């Protein structure tokens, strides 16, 4: 395993000083996601107005992978519709499960594409997908 | 005692020569499970090649061989912990099953509404949930012995929490999360004064130190074979004969009966009464070989080797300002388990980065969530040694640790 392909600068940037790590003023959605086995514990907040995710943020504790993944996801979904966000979740999960490998298809993930190599680290897959599962759960619960 | 050098000893373990991620494997996850010597591995193959049959059931040659393999293993376990009789040695799958057996069989019959069960906050979930669920089922009260900031059970906790209402105390001898050695003898003596029965979770002590159930006067002792060079899937429950005798069977079926009628059954005597169905004979045999290996090396030598390793690792870790150490500072009060964190780094990242250097450590809550919450820790990294580890390996461990923060973008 090559650490350079996992702990990239982009991932460090998102995990250490994420501009998305804060509370929202009046979130319409708030959902906790946690991996009991390792202690990743994040709460995702969303402000959805008329089917559009106007704002999103997160709080909580976690490893670098889970925090970077959460922050990248938030950048990606801001301004998107709920349907678009759910579609991005399935592309991301597909990438991690190696069900989607076509680079062109994965481009929609933008920065989150940097997490592709996590699929080589089975022990850390849960960390990478935590935020995405939490987002899906949060959006579907409120529907 | 075996006078061989560590280099010779390591040659007994095929997996210690493995590479991990292109680096020589440094296996420091021994509290989770240990590697196995040739002798244990060979015994499993040998059993299936030469002695395999269903023990206790047939009058034929192979069945007698299998019975002898299984029962001689029981005797080796008895001698190892110095029990009075091999009737007191029950084979289970692991420490977890031994504890569940006790909760169901001993607990369900002896614990009544209003009784108190005392455990410590150090317990592994295996020695916590069975008692929590029993207490709920019986409307009994589950009480905890709390620890100080270094994870030591406080004396006043022992003398105030264990009372005349206490029927059962179940206590770990050594914490798998912090490495604390508990004052188990003091707890047993005081609990006995109050008329309570004491279970000792020896999962982290039996593999590392000489344990004598007579000297300790433990009523029950549980441990797992896989943490002491043996195969997975074999564990032990020791119990004083008088107590085991009075316990109802835990599982029903073949091998544990005397006479079965349409509406009634009489049960076999100890230890068979508590071992239903075809047992893990290969596992028992592997555990026997593991114990013979440990005894040949000598438990005193093992303890001394690990003390030296732990002291060395502790000293080197203490020199690193980036490391936060948990558990006792006094080395005489800790075992070969060291829990720590690298400053600003989540232990999961630490473990992944160490893995890239070939160093196997554990990260997380170590199956002790109430303890972590009590100590205000989210998760920790844990290195745990066995006698086959070396100072050179600890040097690799330390050098790799020094690199962790760099990978996460910190200057040093
Ligand atoms: C103190 C302690 N108790 C119980 C157990 C459970 O052991 P097993 O999973 O082999 O049943 C462990 C294993 O980690 C342990 O460390
Ligand atoms: Zn994680």
* Average pLDDT level of chain B: 96
Ligand kinds: pyridoxal-5'-phosphate, zinc ion
**CATH architecture of chain A, please?**
Alpha-Beta Complex
First-residue to last-residue Cα separation of chain B: 45 Å
At the first level of CATH, what is the class of chain A?
Alpha Beta
Number of separate structural domains of chain A:
1
Report the biggest beta sheet of chain A as strand number plus sense, adding barrel if it closes: 3 strands, antiparallel
CATH fold naming of the largest domain in chain B: Aspartate Aminotransferase, domain 2
Q: What percent strand of chain A? A: 15-25%
Largest interface: A-B, 25 and 20 residues
Name the helicity range of chain B: 25-40%
Which architecture of the largest domain in chain B per CATH?
3-Layer(aba) Sandwich
Biggest β-sheet of chain B: count, sense, barrel? 7 strands, mixed
Distance between the termini of chain A: 41 Å
The backbone outline of chain A, from C-alpha atoms, is globular
- Rg from alpha-carbon coordinates of chain B: 22 Å
Give average pLDDT of chain A, whole number. 92
Walk me through the topology:
The complex is a heterodimer of chains A (143) and B (412).
Chain A (H helix, E strand, L loop, with lengths): L8 H8 L12 E7 L4 E10 L2 E10 L2 H14 L4 H15 L6 H4 L18 H18 L1
Chain B lengths: L5 H5 L8 E2 L2 E2 L1 E2 L10 H13 L10 H21 L7 E4 L2 H16 L5 E5 L8 H10 L2 E5 L9 H7 L4 E7 L11 H10 L3 E5 L11 H4 L3 E5 L10 E5 L1 H6 L10 E4 L4 E3 L13 H17 L1 H20 L4 E4 L10 E6 L4 H10 L2 E2 L1 E3 L4 H6 L5 E5 L6 H17 L5
The structure holds pyridoxal-5'-phosphate and zinc ion (ZN).
Give the tags.
heterodimer; A: 143 residues; three-stranded antiparallel beta sheet; 5 helices; 3 strands; 41% helix; 19% strand; B: 412 residues; Aspartate Aminotransferase, domain 1; Aspartate Aminotransferase, domain 2; 2 domains; four-stranded antiparallel beta sheet; binds pyridoxal-5'-phosphate
